[in-house]
Amino acid sequence: MIMHRKSPEDQPRIGVYVCHCGVNIAAKVDVEHVRDFAASLPGVVVSRDYKFACSDPGQELIQKDIREHDLNRIVVASCSPQLHERTFRRTCADAGLSPFFFQMANIREHVSWVTVDPGAATTKARALVAAAVRRVARAEALALRQVPVRPEVLVVGGGIAGIHSALTLANAGKKVFLVEREPTIGGHMAQLDKTFPTMDCSACILTPKMSDVKNHPNITMWTYSEVDEVSGFTGNFKVKVRRKARYIKEELCVGCGDCVDACVMKKEKVQVPDEFNVGLSKRKAVYMPFPQATPACMVIDPKQCLQLMKGKCAQTCVDACERAAVDFDQTDEIVEIDVGAIVMATGFRPFDAKRIPEYGYGRFDHVYTTLEVERLVNASGPTGGEVVLRDGTVPKTVGVIHCVGSRDRRHNAYCSKVCCMAALKMAHLVKERTGAEVFDFYVDMRTPSKGYEEFYDQVLSEGVQFIRGRVAEVTDWAMTPEEEGKLVIRVEDTLIGVARRVPVDMVILAVGLEPQVDTAEMQRRFNISCSQEGFFLERHPKLAPVSTFTDGIFLAGACQGPKDIPEVVAQAGAAAAEALALVDRGHVDIEPNTAWIEEEACSGCKTCIPLCPFNAITRDEEKAIAVVNDAMCKGCGTCVAACPSGAAQQNMFTDEQIYEEIEGVLAYV
Amino acid sequence: MKYLYYPGCSLKGSGRSYEESLLASFKKLGVEMHELPDWNCCGATAYMAVDEMKAFALAARNLALAERYGDGEPVTLVAPCNACYLALMKVQKYMAEYDEVGRTISDALASADLSYRGGVRVRQSLDVLLNDVGLDLLAEKINHPLGQWKVACYYGCQAVRPFAPFDDEYNPMSMDHLMRSIGAEPVDWPLKARCCGGTLTGTIPTVGLRLSYIILREAIDRGANVVATACPLCQFNLECYQSQMGREYGEDLDMPIVYYSQLLGQALGIDDRSLGLQRHFVPLTAAAAVG
């Protein structure tokens, strides 16, 4: 809604409130001085300093002044508008003043927290207050716009985070699109054997939820699919999803496996490493990742299938399939959907242990990662749950190494949080299955969650030997006859202060968690931020932990940072609830920062029309001027900056307001 | 190809055969090496432990000379000795990253009418052979492939740690690739970049000898009949103390310890004298009998 363009007739009567924010501001900025300075500015009727302007008494003080001094403009010099602009707008509105007659000057984040010298801080605070006072004098009474919100929600990623979010939303009656890149949902949790600390079977607790997703009437599950493009804004996102050709008709395939038996890639040496078993077994070109894959549908790997690569194959799979589900002519399909909210649940990737060459992963056959051992101890894994090494022997001594790729400034400075417990679980499982002597090399043992410390105690009492020290290297260099043929773990035992050599048959590397390899691309595509280490950034680490800086996009699970399953599920529920709160309200309030054209000044040159990214500008041929469609304008300001005659103006950012603000900063420095 | 060459003290003294073989090989490969005029000690010796700043000043003078020699053009300074290589790399890093070091060293250089702006690229000769000369050209020039050698490639610590712009810190491979290209067979072993004992062989001989012995023992266990090194100090420790190690550990040691450049020179058809092979205590010929 476009309101006044010019300032109202009545003269500005401005109230200025300089907040101490306890000592956050007052310890650096001379607030009394800034208060007195503000009182001297034109139009300022009341100027006060106050301990906490955002407190109830603080707000009541402002409201009382509005009534008693007939104030029509308010400036609060305090923290970032991100935190309290809404608070003070409401304060004004409740006192009968348009919320858009309120202006905030940020003298905390922009001044007291980032300035060393108190004198300089006070000078800068004065300048910002002066700018706010001059700007607010030109403020106009506007009204928030309301835009309807679509009720559908997109969940990106089908691991436990995406699954839990999707089910929560679907159970609340929302239509959910669940998009998963791999041929099946389930994510990393599907690869795990047991889950700490209760040692529930991972598949047993996950697969029922996978099945619920598949069968839920409110969930559209697209596996082997990726999000290509996102446009629009909160409440009204337009998303293009690429459904990759799986060369199997999903609606016909029942996952019987006849095509797999028939596939011509019979010899193991022409087969390829099985992703689900982390390369510990082989698969053919046509495959299903694991028996409980959801959907229970085959997929043909176009990089391995002879027919798809070379166009030459006996096509035994086609003959074997009674339901005629094989379709070599399939192509990628792009589907466009409209959603109100998006939940990102794209997960993590395990640290590549090859990046620490001194641990010998990839060089020594008997060095494994935790994820590989998950598959080894799993009854449906490549060895049927037997812990046997690559040479077929059962290890008698095993070393578990913590912090591989974590808490290591060469790689990731952060703690990956789950690896201590994962390592303890491995120590327990391997000991239980093989009776091997297990050595556990830790830097600090971190087990701070419900039942975790008790699990550590249990593993201690089981006789696992704990050695405190960061392992220097894993080597096949034997110094004594006992070390011959073994892997020797060299470490400084920091509790007894000696360098030790511990010969073992098997080494398990507790690898850390890293952001997905294409996080940067996803960040661009969804227009969200990443923290320094590359995980998606939450809006506020304490108070908005599942929101992003882009309204309508929420975060669930390890894409936001390393987390274990209980935490992931809790966060996925929270993300679903936030998405629900958005779509259930039915509308979003949008700042009235739209552009408009001053008719007399417009020359009809059409410069702005092709520049508008939202196609919101058309030309009124009769008057030969540009016209902005208020409903389509997103307030980006491109046309305002481009207009050669200054005819394009933007609410809340008129030239007048911005010039006054600049003058304010400059005049009093 | 044209490079500025920084020999350092060892290559003019105990490591003379390194210089002889390296320069002869580069010449055969058509690579020009110009010795840096008026170079001085790299600072690596005892200086580094006694007064780091003086050591930096020494190293920096060489860099300043090299930069001046380049006269505005980018300069690559080849330092075949690992200790020199590390000392030169280190002062560059410290001057760039620590203001106080940068200032102090610049002042010291200025008192000798010199300056250093960071325009010199310091490289190990292995790096030049692998990445500039390249294995393709080498394969073309090799006319005496050395099939008889099973080589334990011993890089020493300083070529790859803490700076390893051209190879892996713990499992370097550049010398292995070089040896394969001249027809020899590099053995796979884990002590390629472990400490040889350094100067401990002189100061605390029991520890120094033990560290050297560990290297030799493992090379023998892995089936090597010659050890190739890239560092004059490693070469010295491993070769000259073999009889002492033998007495200490009760075994006859007779392992030739040569520079990779000597084997390269042989494969290029250069005669043994030009490669300085007569200077060694354990003759290279002994290996044939061992192997």
Question: Can you tell me about this structure?
Answer:
The complex is a heterodimer of chains A (669) and B (291). With 669 residues, chain A is α/β, with parallel strands linked by helices. Chain A folds into 5 domains: 14-144, Rossmann fold, CATH 3.40.50; 153-244 and 334-347 and 528-585, FAD/NAD(P)-binding domain (3-Layer(bba) Sandwich), CATH 3.50.50; 258-331, no CATH class; 350-514, FAD/NAD(P)-binding domain, CATH 3.50.50; 595-650, Alpha-Beta Plaits (2-Layer Sandwich), CATH 3.30.70.20. In chain A, helix 12 packs parallel to helix 13 (452-461). In chain B, helix 1 (16-28) links the parallel strand 1 and strand 2. Chain B folds into 2 domains: 36-123, no CATH class; 145-290, Rossmann fold, CATH 3.40.50. Chain B has 291 residues and is an alpha/beta fold. In chain B, strands 2-1-3-4 form a 4-stranded parallel sheet, sandwiched between helices. Classes of the chains: A alpha/beta (669), B alpha/beta (291). At the A-B interface, loops of A face helix 9 of B.
Write the layout of secondary structure elements.
The complex is a heterodimer of chains A (669) and B (291).
Chain A: E1 14-19, H1 31-39, E2 44-50, H2 56-68, E3 73-78, H3 81-94, E4 102-106, H4 108-112, H5 118-137, E5 145-148, E6 153-156, H6 160-171, E7 176-179, E8 194-195, E9 200-201, H7 202-215, E10 219-222, E11 225-233, E12 236-243, H8 258-262, E13 272-273, E14 282-283, E15 286-287, E16 299-300, H9 306-310, H10 316-320, E17 333-339, E18 341-344, E19 348-350, E20 367-369, H11 370-377, E21 397-404, H12 419-434, E22 437-442, H13 452-461, E23 465-468, E24 471-475, E25 487-493, E26 498-504, E27 506-511, E28 513-515, H14 519-526, E29 553-555, H15 565-585, E30 587-590, E31 595-597, H16 608-611, E32 617-620, E33 625-628, H17 638-642, E34 648-650, H18 655-667
Parallel strand pairs in A: 1-2, 1-3, 3-4, 6-7, 6-18, 7-10, 18-29, 20-27, 21-22, 21-27, 22-23
Antiparallel strand pairs in A: 5-30, 8-9, 11-12, 12-17, 13-14, 15-16, 19-28, 24-25, 25-26, 31-34, 32-33
Chain B: E1 2-5, H1 16-28, E2 32-35, H2 47-50, H3 52-70, E3 75-78, H4 82-97, H5 99-110, E4 120-123, H6 125-141, E5 150-154, H7 174-181, E6 185-186, H8 200-203, H9 205-221, E7 226-229, H10 232-240, H11 242-249, E8 257-259, H12 260-267, H13 286-290
Parallel strand pairs in B: 1-2, 1-3, 3-4, 5-6, 5-7, 7-8
